[in-house]
Amino acid sequence: MASATRNVVRWTALIAGVGYGIVHQTTLQTKYDAEKLHRHQAHRAQLVEKAREAYAAKKLAEKSGASSLVTDPEDPRFDLEKLIEAWTKSS
């Protein structure tokens, strides 16, 4: 049979191990959550930058007149001559 001192040491070690595990997991989870938040914010910033570039490109295209070309034949502003001219310029 184990002595009382031995049992106290065993139970103390068990409780200390469980306590350390809980504290360690909490620390790791906090670090993981912070890194996940940082990655999410960086991804959003990258998407915003891409959107700004696309908007600037769209505005530049509108100023140059490239977007005034209507390719939908059902549109009342459709002009076949402008469409053919644009195709010949791009070829």
TrEMBL record:
Localization of this protein: Mitochondrion inner membrane
Alphabetized InterPro entries for the sequence: ATP_synth_F0_esu_mt
GO BP, one annotated term: proton motive force-driven ATP synthesis
One GO molecular-function entry: proton transmembrane transporter activity
Keywords: ATP synthesis, CF(0), Hydrogen ion transport, Ion transport, Membrane, Mitochondrion, Mitochondrion inner membrane, Transport
Gene Ontology cellular-component terms listed: mitochondrial inner membrane; proton-transporting ATP synthase complex
Keyword Cell wall biogenesis/degradation: no
The protein's assembly and partners: F-type ATPases have 2 components, CF(1) - the catalytic core - and CF(0) - the membrane proton channel. CF(1) and CF(0) have multiple subunits.
Family: Belongs to the ATPase e subunit family.
Function field: Subunit e, of the mitochondrial membrane ATP synthase complex (F(1)F(0) ATP synthase or Complex V) that produces ATP from ADP in the presence of a proton gradient across the membrane which is generated by electron transport complexes of the respiratory chain. ATP synthase complex consist of a soluble F(1) head domain - the catalytic core - and a membrane F(1) domain - the membrane proton channel. These two domains are linked by a central stalk rotating inside the F(1) region and a stationary peripheral stalk.
Full protein name: ATP synthase F(0) complex subunit e, mitochondrial
